[in-house]
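Postdoc handover notes: sequence design on the structure in folder B. Input tokens:
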């Protein structure tokens, strides 16, 4: 269990469910192809709202999902209306097929997806016992990040690495707006608890302003609140926590990350 340096925010849990259904065969019908499939702005957390335009004189629509472009389609919904909400456990792709009896659209709709930006650069930040010229702060960008000195007022970090006591191998991630170098942006962190494809929304579940990292940790979710109530979510993954070799007591944290640039949406790939 993570140690709390500050009080955690504990609220309700989001109920989630996986994908279901069979992989569709190639359409054999002559109904029009569904147009204007889109991810609705009402999407939040792992509740993904899909909308599309009406196809006249049909019985309904089947909605399909797959995690990757080469993956297997699975049916996740069958509705008579032109909207559907999917409770997703991972980011991926959607398509829709109209049907009337045994007749179907002549082809699938254009796909839409909820994939985050996957930043494959490996970044490293260092705690306060590493050499003074090593960066401890980090700013998450949509397509790339930036390290810097958390102690500098001009560097408005999202997170920074910090050690509470000298002479041990522990290291914490601090919110950029918390602690000794809290001149940056507020960020809150959550334990994946073995689930890497989505996280709870900030305000539900347990989120921390300071989060202790262990050598066994492989990922951590981050929530970045913005003015107006919107939140952007990030997943740090491929974590590596190790002693910093140039100092006696320093610790370094290396990672890659995924940046979900849809406001308030919390789905990611299954990377960890």
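Designed sequence:
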């Amino acid at each position: 269990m993570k140690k709390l340096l500050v009080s955690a925010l504990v609220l309700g849990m989001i109920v989630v469910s996986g994908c279901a259904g069979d992989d569709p065969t190639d359409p054999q019908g002559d109904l029009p192809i569904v147009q204007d499939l889109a991810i609705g702005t009402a999407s939040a957390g792992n509740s993904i709202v899909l909308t599309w335009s009406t196809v006249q004189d049909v019985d309904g629509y089947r909605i399909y999902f797959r995690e990757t472009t080469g993956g297997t389609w699975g049916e996740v919904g069958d509705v008579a209306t032109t909207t559907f909400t999917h409770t997703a456990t991972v980011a991926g792709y959607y398509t829709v097929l109209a049907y009337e009896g045994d007749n179907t659209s002549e082809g699938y709709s254009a796909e839409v997806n909820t994939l985050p930006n996957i930043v494959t650069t490996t970044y490293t930040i260092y705690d306060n016992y590493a050499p003074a010229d090593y960066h401890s702060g980090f700013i998450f960008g949509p397509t790339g990040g930036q390290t810097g000195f958390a102690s500098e007022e001009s560097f408005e970090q999202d997170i920074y690495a910090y050690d509470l006591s000298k002479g041990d191998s522990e290291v914490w991630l601090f919110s950029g707006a918390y602690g000794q170098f809290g001149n940056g942006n507020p960020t809150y962190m959550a334990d994946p608890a073995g689930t890497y494809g989505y996280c709870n929304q900030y305000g539900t579940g347990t989120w921390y302003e300071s989060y202790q990292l262990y050598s066994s940790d492989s990922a951590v979710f981050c929530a970045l609140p913005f003015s107006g109530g919107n939140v952007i979510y990030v997943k740090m993954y491929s974590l590596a926590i190790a002693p910093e070799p140039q100092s006696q007591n320093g610790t370094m944290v290396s990672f890659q990350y995924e940046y979900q640039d849809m406001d308030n949406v919390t789905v990611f790939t299954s990377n960890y």
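Context for whoever picks this up: The chain is about 0% helix and 40% strand. Don't rerun without checking with the PI first.
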